[in-house]
Write a structure and sequence with these properties.
Length: 85
């Protein structure tokens, strides 16, 4: 699990902010235990991705944009649309 993970908790749900150099295996391990949404990235193309736990698997929402604040906002909207809040 991640320690000292930055979090955007300005709105519900709080979203953990994962640095770009963290492997997806570590993201999976963390989210499998904690079940809270994470914003990952940016990747090599400059895009952020969101990860969340749904049912019994990790779901990844890609291409949330290259600006962190916009990516957080878009990810929250997506979580609301999918009933994950």
């Amino acid at each position: 699990m991640f320690e000292d993970l930055d979090c955007d908790d300005s709105e519900e749900p709080p979203i953990g902010l994962v640095p770009a150099d963290v492997p997806w295996d570590e993201v999976y391990d963390h989210i499998k235990i904690v079940h809270s949404p994470l914003l990952v990235g940016p990747d090599a193309s400059g895009e952020y991705a969101g990860a969340y736990w749904a049912d019994s698997k990790m779901v990844v929402a890609e291409d949330l944009g290259s600006d962190q604040e916009e990516a957080v906002s878009e990810f929250r909207d997506l979580l609301r649309e999918r009933g994950q809040v």
